[in-house]
Amino acid sequence: MKSGSGRPTGPPVRGRTAVFATAALLVLLLVLCLLSLLIGTGSSSPARAFAYLTGDAAARADPQLRLAVVDVRLPRTLAAVVVGLCLGTAGCLLQAATRNPLAETGLLGVNSGAAFAVVVGLTFFGASSPTALLVWALAGGMAASAVVLLLAASGRAAGSPLRLVLAGSALGATFHGMTSYVLLGTQSTFDVYRYWTIGSLAG
Prior knowledge:
This protein folds into 2 domains: 13-100, no CATH class; 105-203, no CATH class. It has helices at 13-38, 46-53, 57-60, 63-98, 110-124, 130-152, 161-184, 187-198. The radius of gyration is 23 Å and the shape is flat. The mean pLDDT is 88. Helix 5 crosses helix 6 (130-152), helix 5 (110-124) crosses helix 8 and helix 6 (130-152) packs across helix 7. The chain has 8 helices and no strands. The protein is an all-alpha fold and 203 residues long. It starts with 12 loop residues before the first helix and ends in a 5-residue tail after the last helix.
């Protein structure tokens, strides 16, 4: 906004709202991280965990409490924060690239490509460890992204955001259909795939 002399009188209302929302979300993130460190399975109460975090000598001497807070809850909390940041960054990049505020990895076929690759690895190559499934998912997601980009860059209106979204939606539906077809014939693969889809921060 500007005064009658043409000088700015303060930041726009939208800018102030964004700053306030960012600050509020950061505070909420810190509170949730603290709760994640204080609350969990086991015999360690939130009060004892808080005493450990604040440097209480008796709490620091308890090996079970150290195991719960440092070896279990802290890695879980850090993993959740990093995964959330990565998902948010991916969403922002995709929305900027497609100029679509609703764009996300599922819309561009990345999720479906990763899921299909995991099912192929489970069914035909015996992949079962978390590391192996991660490699298969990364390979499938990258392959799907490459195919979508190639489709979007070909033909008329090449490179347009609309063509990118349409290519991603079509490829995603194709991968989803192939994934369902493979899963229908293998119950054991379906059980592992279902757990992988749900995900977990434990262990």
